[in-house]
């Protein structure tokens, strides 16, 4: 039995937006980016048991025992007050699951899904669990038909990707900005490692799709279109998914930024398609 555990913020048994087909989506807690545009900002940090959320919970679903914050799911009303007051951008509702416990959940829905996607937060910040989970799936005769995908920001080192390589089928990576300085402004981190991950995954036939985020008035893809197109062409036949920024759920300054519309997305989509790049447009706009 594999006792490797992960801190999990959410498990969605059936998702049609986290990769191809119907998939179980596993969201791990913790991220090494601080994206201004994150619409799941409570998945960024990890609870340090400060207790601020306990004082503000209107339903008394949180308490402190032996110096730890405990969440009582049975009386929680999912009002999300704790998420909004947390200074760590974390959630007291995150739970620890072992590989075996997650496998049990996968087995329950396996006949109805095409695969699993591990997201976050940032899935690769809990790499040992990720490797152990995917290894176990591929070794299980009843589950090995499922595709194992990672939704990642690309900050994982090449050594880390090499550890995953034998056990996963692909990764969906975000490139939030082309220019390094602009990327730092949006995410708090530089992007050379992310570009390297994208190239490396494409070279090893593990880049399922490249994702670009259109943020009105805060997007630099068109300014660097020639370089971006050359970069994408070098990846081979990889689809580019364009996501439209929306302010729903966003904290901080980006909460006041304008959400993207089809008119914001079309110039980039058309420019890429003109260069024979496969583009996947947003399914909806909020």
TrEMBL record:
- The 4Fe-4S ferredoxin-type domain sits at 46-65, 67-96
Q: Which UniProt keywords apply?
A: 4Fe-4S, Iron, Iron-sulfur, Metal-binding, Oxidoreductase, S-adenosyl-L-methionine
Q: Where is the Radical SAM core domain?
A: 17-283
Q: Which Pfam families match?
A: Radical_SAM (PF04055)
Q: Does the keyword Metal-binding apply?
A: yes
Give the similarity note: Belongs to the organic radical-activating enzymes family.
Q: Which cofactor does it need?
A: [4Fe-4S] cluster
Q: What is this protein called?
A: YjjW family glycine radical enzyme activase
* InterPro entries linked: 4Fe4S_Fe-S-bd (IPR017896), 4Fe4S_Fe_S_CS (IPR017900), Aldolase_TIM (IPR013785), BssD/PflA/YjjW (IPR040074), Organic_radical-activating (IPR034457), Organic_radical_activase (IPR012839), Radical_activat_CS (IPR001989), rSAM (IPR007197)
Q: Which PANTHER family match?
A: GLYCYL-RADICAL ENZYME ACTIVATING ENZYME YJJW-RELATED, PYRUVATE FORMATE-LYASE-ACTIVATING ENZYME
* Gene3D superfamilies with a match to the protein in the record: 3.30.70.20, Aldolase class I
Q: Hey, what's the signal peptide range on this chain? A: none
